[in-house]
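[agent] plan:
  1. take the single chain provided in the ticket
  2. run structure prediction with default settings
  3. attach structure tokens to the ticket
  4. add a short note for the reviewer (M.T.)
[agent] executing step 1
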Amino acid sequence: DESLWACLAGMAMANRELATAEVAYTALGEVARVRYIGFIKEQPSKESSLAHMLLFSGHTQEAESCLLQAGLVYQAVRLNIDLFNWDRALDLAVKHKTHVDTVLAYREKYLQRFGRKESNKRFLQYADGVEVDWEKIQAKQEMELSKERERAANALAK
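[agent] step 2 finished; step 3 output follows
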């Protein structure tokens, strides 16, 4: 019965039982949710996993706060990029003086995809002074994820 699987899925996510939630969502044919649970399981730290569980449940602000409290600024910026919260992503990047180029690059890619030009004055202002270099951005992203994995491993070793 689908309603029982749905109840199980909801209860499992509420209790952070990802394996059970995965089985329940699979039984419901919820492929996107099953994939997202897989993504949550692959996160390099407990904080990232928790943030994405919160996001899965619709708690966007709490997810961002969780990442910021853990010092995971890149992840918080990326979360807002992935949600198309462009202004918030730029605010975080500027406030923490990091990944402004990342926000601008993804915003530019997004606009190009829809054949649009930038019209937001703040984005135009920052685009003037920031070079967008995808190789550098990808290297910074890898460095951030590597640092997060290392921090998580050190936390487990303690």
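[agent] step 4 note for reviewer: The chain has a mean pLDDT of 95.
[agent] ticket updated
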